[in-house]
Fold this sequence. Notes:
- The two termini are 16 Å apart.
- Helix content is 12%, strand content 41%.
- A hairpin with a 7-residue loop joins β9 and β10 (124-130).
- The protein is built from two helices and twelve strands.
- The radius of gyration is 16 Å and the shape is globular.
- The protein is mainly β.
Amino acid sequence: MTVKPQRDLRRFELFLASYFNGFPAALACVERPGPAGGSWQFTAAVKARGDWQTFPRDDAAAAICGDGRWARPPNPVTWQLMPRLAAPLALRRDAKSGLSAVLMSRPNDCFAVSMPYGEDGHRSVYLSLFGGDLKAGQEASAAARLVIGKDITDRRAMELYRLYLKK
């Protein structure tokens, strides 16, 4: 995606939405707690943690997620801040069919991954792209990828992500 605003934009967000039929499990790739730096794990978005969950890249991203842009009627959303992303990488899974949807973006392109809890009727994943100020006439680009396949494990999802980053 490439944007070229006609006026200055503060903390610009392109909210890339993906919706799925089925795929009741929703997961985000987060930093693994503990002293092992650079470690990751997938964590499920479960109802007990809130209806709408957002996994920010860092503190600046968390500030954007909570700056009030989602509080507007007619359908305000209050995002529950979740653990920090290890990578802008999310999964939707359907155990019955064995299918998985793997959504990814480059680390500098995506400042948050958001989703409702897995079984929610939306069956969605959202990538928050850009997240910085853009000057009028300043062109900026971001990229994302969706891979759908059978029996994609967490480890395979991370391998797909690493291959994506090499391109």
